[in-house]
Amino acid sequence: MTHTIAAPRTPVTRSKGTNWEKWGWIYMRASGVVLVVLIFGHLFVNLMVGKGVHAIDFAFVGGKWSDPFWQVWDGLMLWLALIHGANGMRTIVNDYAHNRTLRGILKIAILVAVIVLLVLGTLVVTTFDPCPAGSPADLLPSICKDL
Questions:
Q1: What pLDDT, in 10s, does the model give residues 35-70?
Q2: Where does this protein act, in terms of pathway (predicted)?
Q3: 94-108 burial by CB neighbour count: b if 16+ within 10 A, else e?
């Protein structure tokens, strides 16, 4: 049984359909650039503006997430980072898991974990209310007493 190895510059014939590896590669580059902007903006606002790290508490987060701009900013950062990380983990699984069944199980586990984290994270960012109506006054944070 002999195998012939094609010359390095020989064009590769591909089956018709979507090249998921190419789109995964493009996503990693594009999301990486956007994530750098989002993360450094997040760090600048949280650590440099105002009193810096000493100002970060429940009231700071509650005030930030009451603004739709910061909900979109943090939600976008959450979605891009989780999908970016999942795509990286998928690549690692493809590179190192040689058993087809194990590879499939690991990719399904990554997908389930990402879906659960995206749903829970999105719910937290979009539905966060530091002062829920009808709550006992002694359980509410001090910022709610002024409202």
A1: 999 999 999 988 888 788 888 888 788 888 888 999
A2: Carbohydrate metabolism; tricarboxylic acid cycle
A3: eeeeeeeeebeebbe
